[in-house]
Structure formats: structure tokens, C-alpha cells
Design goal:
mainly alpha, elongated, hydrolase, DNA binding, Restrct_endonuc_II_AvaI/BsoBI, EC 3.1.21.4, type II site-specific deoxyribonuclease activity
Amino acid sequence: MTTQKTYLQHLTRSEDLITEYQATRSGFVALALEKNRRATPFIEQARTLKLFASQATIPTDLLAIIDIQPALLTAAGLSDKSIKYLEIQDKIDAIQGLIKNFLEPAGANFIEELVFRFLLTRGDTLGGAMRNAGGILAQRKLIRTLISILRISGKSYRWLHSATNQWIQMLEDDSDIELYLKGLSWKHELE
């Protein structure tokens, strides 16, 4: 008995696996827009940091501004994750190193230097989040495509809700389902 390889219905040559320019372009534009959307809170934080830090006349004055201590740690190059593992003295050392090695040499531009360093670390955070976002956006697109194929083919499906962990029968209105779908199930024609 010969088993037909169903993928051959769609893939007949290696070029069939190459993403078309428009799809690639569309993906990059979508990621750029998402990156800008997610960057907005960091930009606002940087503006607020600049406002608070402008109370200081010299870099060491920043130590007395209690409300910006977490931002000073960020400007020192520490990620939110790394801060959780540090002792108080480690944090003090990081801030003092920032002041001595970068802010004091910047002279009168120390606030600008502080904000740039803050944004540099936040940008790194955003980069990590965007690597995950690219995968999430691709996953949502795949889910939406699978559901469309099932609907067009007249096949019913069930989906696993990520928050409730419950299987739900196909809904008439499936808008935004890809935001909550954790699993997808349907019956094969031979079942």
C-alpha cells in the first residue's frame, strides 16, 4: 500500500518554502509598529527620569532623590531580573560606579548621559521582549490561518482557552481567539 505524502500537495520544490517579499515586508513592518508601541512606556519613563534628575546640580545629588533609585540601577546597566539577585551593597556599588565612571565625566551633561544610559538598558529589555513578540505574532497568524482553513472546509473544532484551561466548542464569533488559544483540536475526515 502506497502512502501519499500530503505535504506534496503544497510543496513540490524547495522554492515553495521561501517566504514571498510582501509577506516578509509585512512581518517586519508589523514588528516595527509593535516595537514602537511597546517602547512608549520606556520613553515616558525616561522623560520622567529627566524631570526628577534635573533637581540635581551635580551627579552625586542624584543619590538623594529617592524616587529615581530604581532608574539609577537601570542606567547602571542592571536589568530588572538581575536586580532581584543583588544585595543592597551591590546596588549601591552599581550606582556609585555609574556616577563615578560615566556621569561625572559627562560634566554639565550628566543628566543627558543618565537618560541615555537608562534608555540603553531599557532598549535591551525591549529587544528581548521583541524577540518573543515576533514568535507570538507568527503564532497568532498561524492560528488564524488554521482556523480559517477549518471554517472554509466546514469542519468544527474545539480550542483550549489559555486562562481557564477549558476546551471550548467552535464559536460563531471567533474574533481575537488567537489571543487566548492554547490548543486546537478537530477530527480528521477518516475518524
